[in-house]
Amino acid sequence: MINHQRFQKGFEVLKQSGIRKTPQRLAILEYMATSESHPTVDEIYKDLLGEIPSLTTATIYSNLKCFKNLKLINELSFGEVASRYEWATSFHYHVRCKLCGKIVDFHYPKLMEVEEFARIKTGFKVNKHLFELKGVCRECQ
């Protein structure tokens, strides 16, 4: 199962980095490894609070920062107040429902050519681009 593999990968990265494997950290790691959504810190907090009553949003923020530095997760801002997080996989794009906020990943390799085109036209060394589509999901239509 892919989620188990993600968790194992994350666990090994923590181990190799010499980072303590606290119950809170492992719970957040497992949550992110198994999440099919793009949760905010508040969503993670609400989902894990019953499992770990001592959990705080500060603990979640610090652990997500750690995971981000280890390149296990990506932080997505979408111009919203709260960032969303996802397990780091191959480069992809997002389509977001403007009614319910649901986010779905999609791959479109041709868009990577935009970086090369921009480099040729401007002389910039482009190292990142963002592309997001907005619409209405099936459930909200």
TrEMBL record:
Pfam family, one: FUR
Keyword Magnesium listed: no
Source organism of this protein record: Bacillus xiapuensis
CDD domains attached to this UniProt entry: Fur_like
Lineage: superkingdom: Bacteria
Chain segments annotated as coiled-coil in the UniProt record: none
Organism phylogeny: Bacteria, Bacillati, Bacillota, Bacilli, Bacillales
InterPro entries: FUR (IPR002481), Fur_C (IPR043135), WH-like_DNA-bd_sf (IPR036388), WH_DNA-bd_sf (IPR036390)
Protein name as annotated: Fur family transcriptional regulator
Alphabetically ordered keywords of this record: DNA-binding, Repressor, Transcription, Transcription regulation, Zinc
Family statement drawn from the similarity comment of this UniProt entry: Belongs to the Fur family.
